[in-house]
Write a structure and sequence with these properties.
Blueprint lengths: L1 H24 L26 E3 L9 E4 L5 E4 L4 E5 L6 E6 L5 E6 L5 E5 L3 E6 L3 E6 L1 E2 L2 E2 L6 E2 L9 E2 L8 E7 L5 E6 L13 H9 L2 H6 L6 E6 L5 E7 L8 E7 L2 E6 L5 E5 L4
Antiparallel strand pairs: 1-20, 2-3, 3-4, 4-5, 6-7, 7-8, 8-9, 10-11, 12-13, 14-15, 15-16, 16-17, 18-19, 19-20
Length: 279
């Protein structure tokens, strides 16, 4: 009797192992590319836990923020609204609506209005008078893609492209120029701490792809927030974070204006405001 149970148990184990092997290697929905992701530095300051929450409950996942020369704060939200906060009244306004759920980066235009990145429509120009228009949606017949490199417009390196900074403690998202000429870069923690090894082996990537419940375990985007201030030579000047995402996480942009840092996030309903003099 005991030997029969052992044989049955062994057979079941073998069947399960074969099924898992087939699932992982032959039915996996991905063709994995290996990445060498270094563990993030262990230094934590949690200064981003000191933010002031602007417009809490009024903003749906404000990915990027920008401040114009009048001091008006703009953000594009995932419900298609470009909202603004005027300096003089402190109230959020629904400024312009675009039929889209994929509004991302925004910037002020030299002649007025905003330039808005929409991953489905392309680069948009948005103005008070004319609403929005598409500036460009395709390049050489292909839909616009967005990358992060440094391209020299003048000087000895004019016309060349190079890497501005590498080996960052996270994946870079929006980059914004600071008043002193340095840059603020929002960093996304793509992988939960301790799970960086997943990207080093095809079997682990197949395993995660085959069992989607594992994705939440590995995905670190919503588990912390990090921004870095980088000098023009690529040296990190300072790093601010919320190491466990207690107050804010998944920060995607950081804009400095009048000694404050304004933060956008794809997992919040507010814009963060941090006094830099006390950070």
């Amino acid at each position: 009797m005991a030997s029969n149970l052992i044989r049955v148990s062994t057979s079941l184990v073998l069947v399960v192992l074969v099924a898992l092997t087939v699932q992982i290697f032959y039915i996996s929905p991905i063709d994995p590319v290996l990445l060498d992701i270094k563990p993030a530095p262990s230094t934590k300051d949690n200064q981003l836990q000191n933010i002031i929450k602007l417009g809490e409950g009024l903003l749906k996942e404000p990915e990027d923020v920008v401040v114009d020369k009048e001091g008006t704060l703009y953000t594009a939200t995932r419900d298609g609204w470009i909202k603004r906060l005027r300096r003089n009244n402190g109230k959020w306004e629904n400024w312009k609506h675009i039929d889209s759920h994929t509004l991302l980066g925004i910037a002020t235009a030299k002649e007025g209005g905003l330039i808005v990145c929409d991953t489905s429509k392309g680069l948009l120009k948005v103005t008070e008078e004319d609403g929005f228009s598409v500036l460009v949606s395709h390049v050489n017949g292909s839909q616009l893609r967005y990358r992060c490199l440094r391209h020299w417009l003048e000087g000895a390196n004019k016309g060349t492209t190079d890497i501005f900074i590498e080996n960052l403690p996270g994946a870079p998202d929006n980059i914004n120029l600071a008043p002193d000429g340095s840059f603020w870069i929002a960093l996304i923690q793509l992988t939960s701490e301790g799970f960086e090894f997943v990207h080093n082996y095809k079997i682990t990537k197949h395993l995660v792809a085959s069992f989607p419940r594992l994705i939440n375990l590995v995905n670190g985007c919503k588990k912390k927030a990090t921004v870095v201030n980088v000098a023009t030579n690529g040296r990190i000047i300072r790093k601010l974070d919320d190491s466990d995402g207690k107050v804010i996480n998944f920060v995607t942009s950081a804009v400095e204006f009048e000694d404050h840092l304004y933060l956008g996030s794809l997992n919040s309903n507010f814009v963060g405001k941090l006094p830099l003099y006390s950070a």
